[in-house]
Amino acid sequence: MTAHPPPVPPFRDPRLPFAKRVDDLLARLTLTEKIGLLHQFAPAVERLGVAAFRTGQEALHGVAWMGPATVFPQAVGLGATWNPDLLRRIGEAVSREARAMRAKDDRVGLNVWSPTVNLLRHPLWGRNEEGYSEDPGLTSALAAAYTRGLRGDHPVYWRTAPVLKHWLAHNNETNRDTTSSSVRPRVLHEYDLRAFRGAVEAGAVAGVMPAYNLVNGRPNHVSPYLREQLRTWTDQELLVCSDAGAPSNLVDSEHYFDTHEEATAAALRAGVDSFTDHGTDSSKIVERVRKAYERGLLTEADIDAAVRRQLWVRFRLGEFDDHDDPGAFDTPEHRALAQEAAEQAVVLLRNDGILPLIPGTRVAVVGLLADECKLDWYSGGLLHRSTPLEGLYERFGAERVTFAEGVDRVRLRTSTGAFLYVPDGGADDEAPGAEGALDPALLAGRTDLPPLGTDPVGTELALVDWGEGVLTLRAPDGRYLSVAEDGYVRASADQPGGWVVRETFRLEPHGAGHLLRHIGTGHHVCVAADGLRVAEEDGEVFELVLVERGEDAVARAAAGADVVLVVAGNDPHINGRETEDRTTLRLPTHQERLLHAARAANPRTILALVSAYPYAIEPGALSAVLWTAHGGQAAGTALARVLAGDVSPAGRLPQTWYASDADLPDLPDLLDYDVIGGRQTYLYFEGTPLYPFGHGLSYTSFAYDDLTAQVSGDTVRVTFSVTNTGRMTADEVAQLYVRAMNPSVPRPRRELLDHRRVTLAPGERAELVFEVPLSAFAFWDVAHGRWHREPGPYDLMAGGSSEDVRLRTTVLLDGAPVPPRAVRERGLDAADFDEQSGTALVDRTRTAGDAVSPAGNRAGELLYRACDFGPGVTEVSVTVAGAGTVEVSLDGGPVLATLATDAPSGTYEYTELTTDFTATGVHDVRIGLRGPLRLAHVGFSG
């Protein structure tokens, strides 16, 4: 008899739609197996032939944490290109490399956690490098393009499955897991949600990752917006992956729930589908889910919903079919693309005509970043490397380029008179185990090299002050002084790095010398018989012997050159990074010294800022200023080609550059998320920026003409022409902005509607056409909880930046005025205010809704405009929790009603207070809050 093969289960049948296959596989899984799939590292289900699966693979600007890969510019640099097509092509390259790397190492994941779409609202945010722009529309357009590339172009299967980070309103690192972002409804809808929504609606997003912070008093990992907003934007199943350790934070640091079982159940019900916690150990999450189920906090249907979303991703990736996508790795095309991206990311901020450099120019290249190709936390390893110095050597010839790094060269003398000495330890050897590390930044410090000692002569060290007294010390062989887990100080690190940076120190005045504190451990450096180490006891008192000041070396190099290029900026692992916000916009003092020395020695000085964020500088004395983010593997080549005029710069600033720390009220307070009330970003900032949003110069000139605007159906058709009136082929980034001319509520000074990056030869003219949906002219009407377009004139502006307006015209749109609030029928939800002072939004309950509380439990005020009391009311009621006083007045007049409670209640134990109050017609209502209470609702009756 012939044996018949077993029938193919439906989930293995590629002829069936994914929905049926997902349902079939889900039905075959036991409850225990389904619970096991909820952790980031999901185990195999061998009886069904289902392989193990890992959510999460970093791929922000190249495949990261898995060894060498093509490294593109940082995300903020990609944002500066203003080029969605470029980002799509980069996404394609990254996804191909992920597939090729996975073919050799199955630890490489295909569920990529990228891009980051958090808006660059505040320039001091430590993770500024990860976002694209301060503008939600530009961010969304670039994120949509990058995810299209990551997804691939197969009609059925996805090359990778991108997850957007970090949901929601996440712009501060200090205490990020316990701080709450107070986000009013208009800011929520017009600003923060917009960046996510456009990318999701574009159709190539597999899911999102909630952020560590809280929004309006509620952790993002139990956010009702996952259900109320995110999952209403698409019919596609979206996977929500927790951030690392965040599920445990719900209890351990946020104290939002009493037990981990309650917290895990709440996160799962809110919409979290995959729990990233405790590394590869899934046992704790599995146990929490199991106990939550047994206690009735979860149903099997809740678990099924999460597992179903995970399975959708796996089916899309082709896991259960014979779909073969071999990918491609480090191809000539990828290398060329990395260079193209680096070139397009360069922004020319100022130019007195010195650029492009004429042939034969002798260049002094100086500065702490002149011979660096820095990586950040989310970079892969470098396959290729080009520093600014190397790029200029290649382009101008080594004989015409001189170099001075500008480090301070020092020796450290101990109390015995001996000097610190770096022994020869075979520094060229690779750290043991490095070849197998998922992320070299996570490697422990090296212990295979001898620690520093002392001798009569000592070793000359290169000292750099990166700002705020944070120092690095480097040995002559290029290795940085680092402290390993055993506490000894060695010259062992190629670069500063790691989750806790082991290569930074601080010199603290002590008597006639200095103590040397290792920042990572917090301990002072001591001299022991077996070598230099850190210890809790009193540290050694060192005398800092200055061998050479960095500015002296810079001045020597600058004096003998035709032009000086000062390359300044940041190390992405120091002073402004994940877990650490900046405290100032200023360039570190060490680098200011070098810049002043170069300028004093040679007036033909160019400043190239290579940084993850904006700086406040004084450009007036400089011949030219350029900015680029850390540009990846081709950064130096790209910069040199721009300086030489091989490429005309066409990058544009993706965020406002402010002139000083004083430019914004309370600039150091990163927790002011109210971009409207706080007048933040180019949308609302009323001062004069150092450089505006969208700014960037060119080596040629462009003329704008023939701006027209016509309403047609649901769109406004806008056209204008751009002509290259200069002598070289170049890109122009034409930008279209709008301003509501007679708004009833505060609206942006101007808002980007669309843009186009075009390449034009000398004399070439291009007509640009923009189809702008009428919805782009609407604002969020807090009074009625909906989008609203007001009738009236709108100013349309075309030009080269948000402040460089070349053309403008007016378009008249129809619509309806915002009707007054029907407060007699619906009352006022406290969070739906028009303006506020001294308040914060908080959670009304643990699961849904917002309330308002005085900030710091002091006093605050809320304003609700145009409240219609109809024929009249005789009573006012307030729904409050806690103890305090609510005062009600009209139109800025005296207090007409006071409602007080002095009986403290639980955080969510609300009571209704009522008193007499008389009003008719339409008035502005002012609500004063006093004391530690939460106001949820105000009602009117009678």
Any overview of this molecule?
With 942 residues, the chain is of the alpha+beta class. The chain has 18 helices and 49 strands. The chain has a six-stranded mixed sheet, sandwiched between helices. The protein has a six-stranded antiparallel sheet with strand order 19-18-15-26-23-22. A hairpin with a 2-residue loop joins strand 30 (702-712) and strand 31 (715-724). Helix 8 (246-252) packs across helix 9 (260-270).
What labels describe this entry?
942 residues; alpha+beta; 6-stranded mixed β-sheet; 6-stranded antiparallel β-sheet; 18 helices; 49 strands; 20% helix; globular
How would the blueprint of this fold be written?
Blueprint (H helix, E strand, L loop, with lengths): L17 H11 L2 H6 L4 E2 L10 E2 L13 E2 L5 H7 L2 H21 L8 E4 L19 H16 L11 E5 L12 E2 L3 H17 L5 E4 L3 E2 L2 E2 L5 H4 L10 E2 L5 H7 L7 H11 L12 H12 L5 H17 L15 H13 L2 E5 L11 E4 L14 E2 L5 H9 L4 E4 L3 E6 L5 E3 L31 E3 L5 E5 L5 E4 L5 E4 L5 E5 L11 E6 L2 E6 L5 E5 L2 E5 L5 E8 L1 H10 L3 E7 L19 H13 L3 E6 L13 E5 L6 H10 L36 H4 L17 E11 L2 E10 L5 E11 L10 E10 L4 E9 L5 E3 L4 E3 L3 E8 L5 E9 L9 H4 L1 E2 L5 E3 L1 E5 L6 E5 L4 E10 L4 E10 L1 E7 L4 E7 L9 E9 L2 E9 L2 E9 L1
- List the strand order in the largest sheet: 11-29-28-27-12-14
Record field, number of beta strands: 49
Radius of gyration in whole Å, from Cα? 30 Å
The fraction of residues in strands falls at: 25-35%
| Low-pLDDT residue intervals, each spanning 5 or more residues | 432-437
Please outline the major beta sheet: 6 strands, mixed
What would you call the structural class? alpha+beta
Mean pLDDT comes to: 95
Kindly, what is the distance between the CA atoms of the first and last residues, rounded to a whole number of angstroms? 89 Å
Helix content: 10-25%
> Total number of helical segments?
18
Shape: globular
